[in-house]
Predict the structure of N-6 DNA methylase.
Amino acid sequence: MENPTITAAEIARLAGVGRAAVSNWRKRHPDFPAPVGGTTASPEFDLIQVEQWLRAQGKLPELATADRLWRHLAAASDSPAAGLAAVGALLLARQRGSRSASIDAQLAPLLPDVDALADELGPQGAFDELWQRFSAPGPGRPFATPDDLADLMIGLANVGGGSVLDPATGSGAILRAAVRAGSTSMYGQELDDDLARLAGLWLALHDVPGEVSGGDSLRADAFAGRAVDAVVCHPPFGATNWGDEELGHDPRWIVGTTPRTEPELAWVQHALAHLRVGGHAVLLMPPTVASRRAGKRIRSELLRRGHLRAVIALPPGVAAPHGVPLHLWVLRRAATDAPPPARALLIDAAGGDLTDTAPRVLAAWRAFAAAPDGDVEEAGFSRAVPVIELLDEEVDLTPARRQPAVVGEASGEHLVRTRERLAAIVGELPALLPQVTPAPDGADGLFLTVGELAKTGALQLIGPVRAGTSAPAPDGPPVLTVQDVLAGVEASGRVDDRFGQEIPLAVGDVVVPMIARQLTARVVTAEGALLGRNLYLLRPNPAALDPWFLAGQLRTSANEKQSSSLSGTMRFDIRRAQVRRLSLDGQRAHGDAFRRLDAFESAIRQAASLGAELAQLTADGLARGDLRPDADLR
């Protein structure tokens, strides 16, 4: 049996040093482990030997059992999904009071850590800890449907206590959202066998009735003939070989044969075919499906027969591909003898943030569902469009093209208010910008890492919050999320069944996202919120560290390079970030400058947003004739 291997770059990350340090160790220490593979330019080393050497030299930071196990697991397996599935099978066997008969030889050395983690957290908790690490973005890991998007999709499907099918399960994000919403039975199918095993293991370890099968849902439907209460799905986009030739007359094509160039519409019909009459399907779709000419006939039939009930344009970045503003299609399996509804709902939520717009989307959908023939309309956001209007030459279902404009007096008032707000913010900018001067030569350049500051008691390093199984508490305190920190807004999340511990935030705490596009640090200025998932909490000792100074030091470009993953995933280990050593009085002076700089940046963001809004309002008003120039320039 071969032990897992590790590269020099990975050794550097493991020890929290640069690659040059690893090169020096190899030259200066004859007992440094010899390469066991790779090439001369990129050698590979035995992970176990390297860990033993680093530990003996006092160069290996202490890791939690889950961190150590996950690192070994990812290195020992052909893929992270396969490795986690193998360990999940061991944990499930233990939960059921038995031991798996067959154990992969590469995983055998990990059994002591698997048992230790299961002893500490229980089999379910151990799997959830490893799942949290698997779900973090990284090489070889799939793009999962984000939890907030999955929750919105499940909310639109109104699953309640019914049965749910996800025919493109991935790692199971949508099925987990359905469990959170109270669904009692789950079904899934996934082309990647390792991911299918993972999703099925999650259900089994959480005692959720259901079944997840491997295979191609379109070519080899594992649940043929089964009708469920809801189908919720994030299907693959743009597939060129999806089986159109062999599936030309498939009974699932209930509104007509799906064109070869419209694979997403094949998934729509697959979903409809699995719904009981009255059940809902929600699918994440590329925006072009709403208007492509090849799909016009299918879109027309979906509308005519009353199956397509809503199309919702989402903000860019809610899911991969992140630069595309995706759509949600909401369908309802209509009875063949029922008269089709007169209207379909189109919602344009592309201009906001999903955290802010999701409640509005759900409210608009529920109002429409309660009165499907009513005149539901919110200018610039949602409109219940007569189906006869949609059945025009193009059958274009793009929500933005069917929304009523904000016109007349309301538009003029909005423009005036926006202009006044922008002028007020711009007027404050000079006073907000901190005044600074070049430092004299010989300024103190000694730095300490966050890890070293924690050891000396200058700060406490808490979190990130681990996943758990706490009961939801919708009326409890708000939760500060990663999105809140990045946007610089108040806590907007809530405690749910993904929380394992509740950590109250205090004034003066500094929070840092573990995964983000850039290193961001925020100072907590009000009590009452809880620490959210994937956030580090740094709690300074007020006798040693000023919080605003600490936050300003952490967010530098140098620390972004120092603490981020070398793989480019922007996963930060804040313990490696460096903080300049200054007296407490010096820290407070710098902290005041950092505080003013934070306010300046916030004002700049608001000004940019208001400026773009003002320009669009003015252009729209001039073009429509609702506004005119003050002076006649003819």
The chain is about 40% helix and 15% strand. Residues 467-474 have pLDDT under 50 and may be disordered.
